[in-house]
Amino acid sequence: MTLIAVIGALLHTAADSGTMLVLSRALLGLGSAASFMSVVVLCSRWFPRDRLSLTLS
Amino acid sequence: MFAASQIGIFLATTPMALATAAIGWRWTFVMTAMATAVIAGFFFWLVADDPPGRAPPPRAPETLKQILLGLREVWRTPGLGKVLAVHAFIYASMVTVLGLWAGPYLSDVHGLDAIARGNVLFAMAAAQLIGILCYGPLDRIFNTRKWIVIAGGSGTLLTLLLLAVLPGIALVPAVVLLVLLCGVTSYSLVVVAHGRSLFPDHLAGRGVTTVNIAQVVGSAFLPILTGFIVGAGPTDTVIRPESAYRLAFGTIAFFFAVGLVAYLTAEDVKPRQS
Predict the structure, then answer these.
(1) Out of A12, A33, A56, whose CB is closest to B193?
(2) Which residues in chain B have Cβ-Cβ distances shorter than 8 Å to A46?
(3) Is residue A38 exposed (0-12), middle (13-18) or buried (19+ Cβ within 10 Å)?
(4) ipTM for this prediction
(5) Run of H or E including A30
(6) Per-residue pLDDT tens for B220-271?
(7) Domain ranges of chain B
(8) B145, B138, B142: which is closest to B266 by C-alpha?
(9) What are the φ and ψ backbone dihedral angles of B20, each rounded to 5 degrees?
């Protein structure tokens, strides 16, 4: 998912229209959001449940 | 993790402005894309799905039907609605002020120039980062998540209401309230931990993303709504009146209060028992 964000950022650099700008930023958001949430899930796997808030902070 | 993610927010302020001025925004984005790709590579190489010394639990690939059934199970989880209600408006309340209205408010009402506004916004972002780090250990110290959120939420509500109801508030108390708002409204991570504790392990991914959807919805809803409110003022002047901003702060406070009241009846999940 992070690579989708990278592709979005690279397309963003080449945007020559409003539509392409919006689509590239949508890809950027899609990849970033999904990779961020994946790390939240990884934290819940790696660390004891009672330390989840501490890990997330 | 949330605090580390704020590094990107800080880099997107003055450093990004400097980079854009030096090499242009297109090359700035090329650099960020390359940095992100390198980090993704290291992440793929170094980070495992499970901690060392623990065998990975069986995770059979799911069909689309099983995925959708799992989502239905997530939405039927008892207590989820109350967590979603408050989560929709915590980050949204803070970021609608920090990211949208604090700058125009400080300019229109208090006459601050761009540099002074930037300093206040920086202080607000720094307060948020400090707040995130402070909230992290609190649930284990007090063995409650619900009451951490309610205590923090009371602080959020108080600061928003003071910004809304005090007419002609001077610059210094206004800045103190804005910084306090960001510092005290940093307990989203406690709600995420509360939400995660509601789901069995096999639904963890779908569960926490469902919880986060509420935050995304709220973060879209409040800026749009307050945009209508502030924009509804007189159009014959470029400076918006203080009353428009106070109404916007009051509206944010109202929706936040609705979410917080819904959460009041949620069942607490004590960290030492979860």
Answers:
(1) A56
(2) 50-51
(3) middle
(4) 0.89
(5) helix A18-46
(6) 999 999 999 988 876 666 788 899 999 999 999 999 999 999 999 999 988 8
(7) 1-52, 77-273
(8) B145
(9) -65, -40
A1-57 pLDDT, tens per residue? 899 999 999 999 988 899 999 999 999 989 988 888 888 888 888 888 888 889 989
Give, as one character, the DSSP assignment of residue A57: -
Name the closest residue on chain A to residue B211, using Cα atoms.
A37
Interface test with B, best of A4, A27, A56 (most B CBs within 10 A): A56
Tell me whether residues A10 and B2 touch, CB distance under 8 A.
no
Which overall architecture, per CATH, does domain B77-273 show?
A: Up-down Bundle (1.20)
**Can you list the residues of chain B whose pLDDT is less than 70?**
234-237, 274
Tell me the chain B residues in contact with residue A42 when contact means C-beta distances shorter than 8 Å: 47, 49
